[in-house]
TrEMBL record:
Biological or metabolic pathway of the protein: Cofactor biosynthesis; ubiquinone biosynthesis
Family, similarity comment: Belongs to the COQ9 family.
COQ9 C-terminal domain sequence ranges: 149-216
Keywords annotated in UniProt: Lipid-binding, Mitochondrion, Transit peptide, Ubiquinone, Ubiquinone biosynthesis
Entry-linked InterPro entries: COQ9_C, Ubiq_biosynth_COQ9
Protein name: Ubiquinone biosynthesis protein
Amino acid sequence: LLPRLRPLSKSTAVSLLRPYHSYDHPPPPGPFTLTESTILSAAIPHIPSHGFTHTALSLGATDVGYIDASTNLFPNGAFSLVHYHLYTQRLALAKNEHILSPVLKGGEKPLGVGGKVKALTWERLMANREVIHRWQEALALMAQPSHLPTALSELSSLSDEIWFLSGDTSVDTSWYTKRASLSAIYAATELFMTTDKSPNFHDTREFLDRRFMDVQIVGGTMGSMAQWAGFTGRAGLNILRSKGVRI
């Protein structure tokens, strides 16, 4: 049997000729070196107070014993903080054992693929809760023409990661419809969350549930390629708008 294939996460730091890789082989290297990861990891706790800024990046470098000039390692400046957050929080989804491999009590049924998709999407949104008051800054950085390809690539990789972890095995055109739909849902909900003042982001959760219902992503797919083409066209515009692009 052929090995199961999955789209490879794109990054500005890694350029590969093959768009897919097999899980029978080691994953490709990430977009950050060890030194970069050390500085960025130390800078993340400064984001709530200082935002996605050069100041937070500089403070992170100082915290781990580097001089301020070490921030020159990041030609993309503060966007490197955004990219690191997107990348690490995407990888962290695989650690949600309570969703992926829960310990079931008597009579309790495990989540299906759709239930896991919704649960993992919510977990990823909640990973923004400590920086959500700064997320408009992140969106502005992602909207810059030089950064937008990386931001959209990370969004695509996030959608693929969620479906893959949830156990999706589709190999037909629904593979694309599901991922396009989830990307649009996530981007819209993330933007809504930046203005949500309800307790525990209750309104965001309801917004997310309505978006899933709108596109009927859980348990079904769109009826034709024409429907899919029309939806992805609108979704693409909405994603760009959610990243701050004026269209």
